[in-house]
Amino acid sequence: MRVLGIESSCDETGVAVYDTALAGPDALRAHAVYSQIALHAEYGGVVPELASRDHVRKLLPLIRQTLAEAGMDVADIDGVAYTAGPGLVGALLVGAGVARSLAWALEVPAVGVHHMEGHLLAPLMEDDPPQAPFVALLVSGGHTQLVAVDRIGQYRLLGETLDDAAGEAFDKTAKLMGLPYPGGPQLAALAERGTPGRFKFTRPMTDRPGLDFSFSGLKTQVLLAWRDSDQSEQTRADIARGFEDAVVDTLAIKCERALDAAGTDVIVVAGGVGANKRLRAKLQQMAARRGGRACFPRPSLCTDNGAMIAFAGALRLEAGQHTPPQVQVTPRWDMATLPAV
């Protein structure tokens, strides 16, 4: 089955073709992502109405481009998958409208995919994919969650952030120190030049039981440290390193607790922050010490993309699941309500 995947939940337009007749990374026939970073940069964050309009402009050309790269025509599509939520309602409706129209015109099935399930399943597209049960860390600009995966489609929330997501904390902390939008990747790059240990920030909520997170207090600590410093470029890098170490250590501590709670030694990491090199190294060390595995998608599939939607949709379409023909999206959607595959 050749599935066209469409992602339009926020500020990236993603399109991909996934072919279930192939195996491993080869099954991803083609994928492309158009980022709206330049469009939103002058506002310091995503403007929902502008995001929706840009999806309208970019989606159809991106579909044509992706099909051409896959060596396919639109008539070769056997199914369509699209992000139905969670996300910005206007942006979601653009992708859903195009997807439903294509499916209706081609007389093929379509399925609405949960955005976070797409992220969660992205590492399964790699060679030697992990097998359930495992624990998933979903860590991005909008989410930080620990999820026990008993089987595909059967998820139990173990813990989540009580305030800022980890990626959101990266972005806001970068903004406090005057880094350009989007600040998270800029801060991580700056931390590479920072002196370890010069600034020591707390590892929030690790001094008590539980698997929930809180990152808002770290922003305040950074603000105070930056305000009271000489504000040199090296100090900025040292503070960035201290902040990144605090977030990475916190995530690793909570992940190990989640593995103990779920009774498994396999951790799967997905979402934009999953591309962070220090986080990857820390979790690989933790998993190796336990005799387990830490699994990640390739960096290009950590941020929002159509490939994860095409893959998650292909699994559900092959299981006989599809969505009614209405153009309907769910901006807030609990992943625990999904049916098992």
Automatic annotation (TrEMBL):
Keyword match Metal-binding: yes
Protein name per Swiss-Prot or TrEMBL: tRNA N6-adenosine threonylcarbamoyltransferase
Cofactor dependency: Fe(2+)
Compartments, record wording: Cytoplasm
Membrane-spanning parts: none
Cofactor note text: Binds 1 Fe(2+) ion per subunit.
Keyword line: Acyltransferase, Cytoplasm, Iron, Metal-binding, Transferase, tRNA processing
Gene Ontology MF, one: tRNA N(6)-L-threonylcarbamoyladenine synthase activity
Entry-linked InterPro entries: ATPase_NBD, Gcp-like_dom, KAE1/TsaD, TsaD
UniProt-listed HAMAP family: TsaD
Pfam families attached to this UniProt entry: TsaD (PF00814)
Binding site for substrate: 138-142, 171, 184, 276
Top-level class of the enzyme under EC nomenclature: transferase
Presence of keyword Cytoplasm: yes
